[in-house]
């Protein structure tokens, strides 16, 4: 017994985490080395592990066809669909969005090619730099999270304070730049529809600079030998306004719908859009920022996803953010208090990604 107690207490979690980080090998490197069990600091707590499974329902998140978005006769129906999806699911897929399938495939392939490089090659990009530039690392919140998750990511800031293009690894540079442009066009169309869904002018969110500060992330979820003990990404909601995502055919993404986790089944050529915390707050709770997670990958082939997170750059006004005044009335008073960008960032960067607390902190208690 005494030996066991010593063995347990001598486990120095932080030391192992640091050694892993400093090795710059990533989970891809661990996976490629042929390990059959995962390092202990990846083992998730029981509250995360107890319900890890594919969903039992055949439900899929709503699929919205944008083909007729410019038709004044058909647009109102699309606005209704987008509004309904953002209120009830917080997640939807759009098809006929105008981005050629080849652009999606090329970007996914380029990100896969980046992660497939030998780790000595990727090591020179490995660093932790928050809120700017280009960063490649395993788990952005490695030092803050209770347990690490089974993914590595390449991140590049785009928009107003963008990374230097030449800092983006050459193997995927052209594709990342092209995808940013295409995805942002889709995001602008969707934000117009979401704005109209709130009874606001189509250009309202553009005016609020919703897409001016954005982050590209190319995730890699390699094969995990013990998928029942960890996750690909822990349950979380996205902090920004809106997220646009595309994935390869390897499954894993799930969305919380009521009490259930629902698999997001990729639709060929489709793009996944989800509402972030910021949009939930400024829409005064009309649109939902929903929890989602990725299961640890049990397929031999890596799961790849390409994501752009859209964030406001500035606010025309006094530097405070909160429910849009246009949406408030005596019947619909603000359910969130105003906050500063500093508060928003402090909340995001001081915690693991799995917190929902900014929304909870801002709720006005009656
Ligand atoms: O890889 C995915 O499908 C989801 C990634 C995600 O939720 C995130 O990066 O916030
Ligand atoms: Fe997310």
Describe the overall structure.
By secondary structure, this protein is an alpha+beta fold. It has a single domain, classed as Sandwich (Jelly Rolls). The chain contains twelve helices and 14 strands. The strands form three sheets. Strands 1-2-10-7-12-5-4-3 form an eight-stranded mixed β-sheet. The protein has a four-stranded antiparallel β-sheet with strand order 6-11-8-9, with no helix packed on it. A two-stranded antiparallel ribbon has the order 13-14. Helix 6 crosses helix 8. The chain is globular, with a radius of gyration of 21 Å. The N terminus is likely disordered. The protein binds 2-oxoglutaric acid and fe (ii) ion. The site of fe (ii) ion has 3 residues, from loops. Keywords: Iron, Metal-binding, Oxidoreductase. Belongs to the iron/ascorbate-dependent oxidoreductase family. This is Fe2OG dioxygenase domain-containing protein. Its cofactor is Fe cation.
N-to-C span: 53 Å
The unique ligands bound to this protein are:
2-oxoglutaric acid, fe (ii) ion
CATH hierarchy class name:
Mainly Beta
Q: Helix/strand/pairing class, anyone?
A: alpha+beta
Order of neighbouring strands in the sheet with most strands: 1-2-10-7-12-5-4-3
């Amino acid at each position: 017994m005494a030996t066991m107690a010593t063995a347990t207490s001598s486990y120095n979690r932080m030391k192992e985490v640091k050694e892993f980080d400093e090795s710059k090998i990533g989970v891809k490197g661990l996976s490629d080395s042929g390990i059959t069990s995962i390092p202990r600091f990846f083992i998730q707590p029981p509250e995360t592990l107890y319900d890890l499974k594919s969903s039992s329902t055949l439900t899929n998140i709503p699929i919205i066809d944008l083909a007729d978005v410019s038709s004044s006769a058909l647009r109102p129906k699309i606005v209704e669909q987008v509004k309904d999806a953002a209120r009830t699911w917080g997640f939807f897929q759009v098809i006929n969005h105008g981005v050629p399938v080849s652009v999606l495939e090329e970007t996914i392939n380029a990100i896969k090619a980046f992660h497939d490089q030998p780790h000595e090659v990727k090591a020179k990009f490995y660093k932790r730099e928050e809120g700017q530039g280009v960063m490649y690392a395993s788990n952005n919140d490695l030092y803050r999270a209770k347990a690490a998750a089974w993914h590595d990511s390449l991140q590049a800031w785009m928009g107003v304070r963008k990374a230097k293009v030449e800092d983006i690894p050459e193997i995927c540079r052209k594709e990342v730049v092209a995808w940013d442009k295409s995805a942002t066009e889709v995001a602008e169309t969707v934000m117009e529809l979401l704005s109209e869904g709130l009874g606001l002018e189509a250009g309202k969110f553009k005016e609020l600079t919703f897409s001016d500060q954005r982050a590209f992330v190319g995730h890699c979820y390699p094969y995990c030998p013990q998928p029942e003990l960890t996750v690909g990404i822990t349950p979380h909601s996205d902090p920004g306004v809106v997220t646009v995502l595309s994935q390869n055919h390897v499954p894993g993404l799930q969305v919380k719908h009521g009490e259930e986790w629902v698999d997001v089944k990729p639709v060929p050529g489709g793009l996944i859009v989800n509402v972030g915390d910021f949009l939930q707050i400024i829409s005064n709770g009309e649109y939902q920022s929903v929890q989602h997670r990725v299961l640890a990958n049990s397929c031999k082939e890596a799961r790849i996803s390409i994501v752009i997170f859209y964030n406001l750059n500035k606010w025309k006004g006094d530097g405070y953010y909160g429910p849009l005044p246009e949406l408030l009335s005596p019947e619909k008073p603000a359910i969130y208090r105003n906050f500063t960008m500093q508060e928003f960032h402090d909340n995001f960067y001081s915690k693991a990604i799995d917190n929902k607390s900014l929304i909870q902190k801002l709720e006005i208690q009656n």
